[in-house]
C-alpha cells in the first residue's frame, strides 16, 4: 500500500452516515494517507449519531450542513477553514436521495415536487458547493473535487427512476464547472461512477439485492466495494492525478464495457430449461 498520498492536504468529506457509506470508508482511507479534514452531513443524519464515532477515529469535528442550503455551505466552509487553518485541497460530494425512489413511486407516476427535491439534494447541491467555493476562493490551486455517480446517467435502468436524471445533471455540472474552475485556478472536478454498493442509499432502491448480484456476475472483476471506491477517491485527491478533470470515471469492475458475461448466459439457459 502507498503511504502518505495525502500528506499536508486538507479537505471536506460529506455524506458519511454509517460504516457502509462510501464517504465513511473514504474518511478512513484519507486519514490513513495523512489528510486532515472535517466531516459534514445533513442535521437529520447527525442526530442518528454514528458519524460521531467516525469523527473520533479520524480525530476531527463534524459540521452539520444541509447541502441544499447555500447559507449552510457558507457556514461549513468558514468553520472548516478556521478549524483546518486555511484554504482546502479537496472536497467529496457523496450525497444522494430521491423521495420518489424511497417511497416507491413509479417512473410514470412521479411526484414533481419530489423530483425537484431529488435534483436539488443529489445534483444542484454539487453546483452550490462549487459556486460557494469559487466565491469564497476557498480551494487551493490544483485542488480536487469528486462526486459519486451511477451508470444510469448514460443507460436506462428500470429501477433508478428520477435518480437517473439527477446523476446526468451531476455529471454535467462536473464537466461545466471543471472547465471554469480549471481555467480559473487549476482545480479539477470529476465524478466517479460506482458499482452498486450495499449502503443506505443503495439498498433503498427496489430490487437492489438482485441487481447487485447480476452486476457482480456481469463485471469481470466483480462489483467494486465501498472500500475500493474510497481508495480510488484518495488517488483522485492526490497529486498523482493532477491532469485528470471533467471526467466521469467508471469504477465498476468492468461492468460498463461488458456486453454480457458467460455466467449470465449460463444462468439464463439453466433457468429456462
Ligand atoms: P449513504 O446513504 O451512506 O450516503 C448518502 C448520504 O447523503 C447520507 O449520508 C445522507 O445523510 C446524505 N444526504 C442526504 N441528503 C442530504 C442533504 N440534504 N445534505 C447533506 N447530506 C445529505 O449511501 P452511499 O451509497 O454511500 O451514497 C453516496 C453517493 O454514492 C450518493 O451520491 C449515491 O447516489 C452514490 N452512489 C451509490 C451507489 C450505491 O449503490 N450505493 C452506486 C453509485 C453511486
TrEMBL record:
Keywords associated with the record: Fatty acid biosynthesis, Fatty acid metabolism, Lipid biosynthesis, Lipid metabolism, NAD, Oxidoreductase
Write out the pathway annotation from the protein's UniProt entry. Lipid metabolism; fatty acid biosynthesis
Cited InterPro entries: Enoyl-ACP_Rdtase_NADH (IPR014358), NAD(P)-bd_dom_sf (IPR036291), SDR_fam (IPR002347)
Q: What is the catalytic activity of this protein?
A: a 2,3-saturated acyl-[ACP] + NAD(+) = a (2E)-enoyl-[ACP] + NADH + H(+)
The answer on whether this UniProt entry bears the keyword Lipid biosynthesis reads: yes
* The keyword Nucleotidyltransferase is assigned to this record: no
The protein's matches in Pfam families, at most eight in alphabetical order, are given as: adh_short_C2
Superkingdom per UniProt: Bacteria
Q: What is this protein called?
A: Enoyl-[acyl-carrier-protein] reductase [NADH]
For this protein's source organism, the top of the classification is: Bacteria, Pseudomonadati, Bacteroidota, Cytophagia, Cytophagales
Amino acid at each position: 500500500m502507498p503511504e502518505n498520498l495525502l500528506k499536508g492536504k486538507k479537505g471536506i468529506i460529506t455524506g458519511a452516515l454509517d460504516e457502509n457509506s462510501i464517504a465513511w470508508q473514504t474518511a478512513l482511507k484519507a486519514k490513513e494517507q495523512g489528510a486532515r479534514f472535517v466531516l459534514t452531513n445533513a442535521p437529520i443524519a447527525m442526530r442518528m449519531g454514528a458519524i460521531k464515532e467516525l469523527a473520533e477515529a479520524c480525530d476531527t469535528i463534524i459540521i452539520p450542513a444541509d447541502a441544499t442550503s447555500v447559507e449552510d455551505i457558507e457556514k461549513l466552509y468558514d468553520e472548516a477553514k478556521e478549524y483546518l487553518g486555511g484554504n482546502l485541497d479537496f472536497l467529496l460530494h457523496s450525497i444522494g436521495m430521491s423521495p420518489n425512489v424511497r417511497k416507491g413511486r413509479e417512473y410514470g407516476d412521479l411526484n414533481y415536487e419530489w423530483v425537484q427535491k431529488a435534483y436539488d439534494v443529489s445534483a444542484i447541491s454539487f453546483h452550490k458547493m462549487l459556486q460557494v467555493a469559487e466565491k469564497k476562493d476557498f480551494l487551493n490551486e490544483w485542488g480536487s473535487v469528486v462526486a459519486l455517480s451511477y451508470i444510469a446517467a448514460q443507460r436506462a435502468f428500470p429501477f433508478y427512476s428520477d435518480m437517473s436524471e439527477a446523476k446526468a445533471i451531476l455529471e454535467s455540472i462536473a464537466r461545466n464547472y471543471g472547465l471554469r474552475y480549471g481555467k480559473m485556478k487549476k482545480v479539477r472536478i470529476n465524478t466517479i461512477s460506482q458499482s452498486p454498493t450495499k449502503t443506505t442509499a443503495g439498498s433503498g432502491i427496489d430490487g437492489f439485492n438482485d441487481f447487485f448480484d447480476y452486476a457482480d456476475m456481469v463485471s469481470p472483476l466483480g462489483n467494486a466495494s465501498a472500500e475500493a471506491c474510497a481508495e480510488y477517491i484518495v488517488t483522485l485527491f492526490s497529486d498523482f492525478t493532477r491532469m485528470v478533470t471533467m471526467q466521469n470515471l467508471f469504477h465498476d469492475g468492468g461492468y460498463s464495457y461488458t456486453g454480457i458475461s458467460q455466467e449470465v448466459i449460463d444462468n439464463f439457459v439453466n433457468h429456462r430449461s
